[in-house]
Design brief:
alpha/beta; two-stranded antiparallel ribbon; binds zinc ion; 6-stranded mixed β-sheet; Aminopeptidase; single chain
């Protein structure tokens, strides 16, 4: 498959969530790099919407890149944040009515919660720009909360960054079979 990986946010000009000197842009890029390696090793073609810090803000260009590249799947990777540091857990979003998006979201959520031991906040639909503007099935993964001290460790340590990537890669591996099943039921 042709898989577009979208590391959320941009870098210094648009870092996303920030906590204790850690930025969302940096941790999701690290997870995306691991994911890219795993997917290429599994025989997929991979396009990253950014491979480092980039000066672009906004969201439309991310979906546009994936559409022009004719991606089969679009995976946007984020870390969550909340004013209350006790908030925690993983969740995955898909576009309302997208059966393939729902299937991929369900698979990623199950793998992520299983491998990381994070709290299951569920897979949910939302009309996020990157989900709405992409032609192919798309998901937005909220890996864990950067604002939670324990989960910040998961997001910054290479071993657990790798686990997030492995969870998503395994979900992609299961997707073709599972999506056929979801069309029959
Ligand atoms: Zn984000």
């Amino acid at each position: 498959m042709r898989i577009a990986i979208d590391p959320g946010h941009s870098g210094p000009c648009e870092p996303g969530a920030c906590a204790e000197g850690v930025t969302e842009a940096a941790v999701v890029l690290a997870i995306s790099d691991y994911l890219s390696q795993l997917l290429v090793a599994a025989g997929h073609s991979v396009m990253m919407t950014r491979s480092g810090d980039c000066p672009l803000t906004g969201l439309k260009w991310r979906a546009l890149l994936a559409n022009c590249w004719r991606a089969d799947l679009f995976i946007s990777i984020h870390a969550n944040s909340y004013s209350e540091p006790t908030a925690h857990g993983s969740e995955v979003y898909y576009y309302p009515g997208s059966r393939y998006g729902l299937t991929l979201a369900r698979l990623i959520q199950a793998e992520m919660v299983g491998r990381l031991g994070t709290t299951d906040r569920g897979f949910k639909h939302a009309m996020y720009t990157v989900l709405e503007d992409t032609i192919c099935p798309a998901v937005l993964v909220e890996t864990a909360f950067l604002s939670n001290p324990d989960e910040r460790k998961l997001l910054t340590e290479p071993d657990s960054q790798q686990l997030f990537a492995e969870a998503i890669a395994e979900a992609v591996a299961r997707f073709p079979k599972e999506s056929r099943i979801s069309l029959i039921d």
